[in-house]
Write a structure and sequence with these properties.
The complex is a heterodimer of chains A (196) and B (146). Chain A is α/β, with parallel strands linked by helices. Chain A contains six helices and four strands, in the order ααβαβαβαβα. The longest helix of chain A is centred in the first third of the chain and has 17 residues.
Chain lengths: 196, 146
């Protein structure tokens, strides 16, 4: 890959503005939710089922979330992570600052177009297999800011979303329910048919 | 507590120094001409007894026929404050002098006003969009945006 050198901050601004406008132009339609494996159960290779069961169990039992908390839903996530609701019950207590060590992105908050390239980059840096939970009204659809000039109307414009947790913000119980739904979704994945 | 100075009291003092600089003054604020904003601001900052050494905030208001930029000044030395306003009637290319040379805190706030309201500040060292991205069309806080 060719590395471009940028010297002045105004040049950086122009590049950023161009990148954002391009991202907006190609994000006009939502990305379809990755769920094609959910009805494929019958087509599966029988020899692999116990391997699948083992792998899916391992994957869903220690989902490590990555830092992606642009707004106020982050507080509900913190509550969920803290002792009262305690997501370490699901092996999730380690929130990774590095996307390379994480397999779940909980998108807790309003996303602006200015921030969108960074979130997309974090998602792209996460290693497969990876999942996304859209937490809260803004993450699902842009929420009350949907018609704003600067807000991304739902994270599924830029990254594929597995589970949507509604609420403004969702209570920790709702987030935990969403995490349980994701567990059920992962349990149906097969290594033979790649999910995404 | 910080004492809010009356605009009309300061107005007479400024009018003596800069005749015609003050457009109107009231109990809460002082409206000055755009052309004399910079020298009046320098006077407010440096004159003994006033010493407005701290710029609390700058905001801008769209009144359809004009843009009004509001400077909230505070003197930490005397613990008093003053609101200075100025107006800009040119809607296509509104321009005002920058006060970054007097108060460094004006830097980002003038950039924000430039970004969202579209008012250019002459003499600003780095006047470019700060909240939105380069290449965004329009200025969203203007009343005729949308």
């Amino acid at each position: 890959m060719e590395v471009e050198e940028v010297y002045s901050s105004s040049e950086l601004d122009r590049k950023e503005g161009k990148a954002i406008n391009e991202l907006i132009a190609r994000s006009q339609e939502p990305i379809p939710d990755p769920d094609q494996w959910l009805d494929e159960e019958l087509k599966r290779n029988i020899l692999l089922t116990s391997v699948d069961a083992m792998l899916d169990w391992a994957r869903r039992s220690s989902l490590w979330p990555v830092f992606c908390f642009p707004a106020c839903c982050a507080f509900e996530f913190m509550t969920t992570a803290a002792s009262r609701f305690d997501i370490s019950r699901f092996g999730m207590e380690i929130v990774r600052a590095s996307p390379r060590q994480a397999d779940l992105m909980i998108t807790a908050g309003t996303l602006t177009w200015k921030m969108a390239p960074q979130v997309k980059r974090i998602y792209d840096q996460m290693a497969e297999p990876k999942w996304v939970i859209a937490m809260g009204a803004c993450a699902i659809s842009g929420g009350i800011f949907r018609s704003s000039y600067s807000v991304v109307p739902g994270y599924n414009r830029i990254i594929p979303v597995d589970v949507y947790v509604p609420g403004c913000p969702p209570r920790p119980e709702a987030l935990l329910y969403g995490i349980r739904m994701l567990h059920q979704k992962i349990a149906k994945m097969s290594i033979a048919a790649k999910g995404k | 507590m910080t004492v809010a100075l009356s605009g009309s009291e300061i107005a007479s003092q400024i009018e003596k120094q800069f005749p015609g600089g003050v457009v109107e003054s009231g109990a809460d604020s002082l409206l000055v001409k755009g052309e004399s904003l910079l020298e009046i601001a320098a006077y407010l900052k440096t004159t003994a007894g006033l010493d407005f050494d701290y710029l609390t905030a700058i905001t801008a208001v769209d009144y359809y026929d004009c843009f009004e930029v509001v400077y909230q000044l505070t003197s930490i030395k005397h613990n008093h404050s003053l609101v200075v306003k100025t107006r800009c009637y040119n809607r296509d290319n509104p321009t005002l002098p920058s006060v970054v040379g007097l108060w460094r805190g004006a830097d980002f706030q003038e950039r924000e006003i430039y970004d969202l309201m579209g008012i250019s500040f002459e003499g600003h060292p780095n006047l470019k969009r700060i909240v939105l991205w380069d290449g965004f069309q329009g200025h969203p806080l203007r009343k005729n945006f949308l």
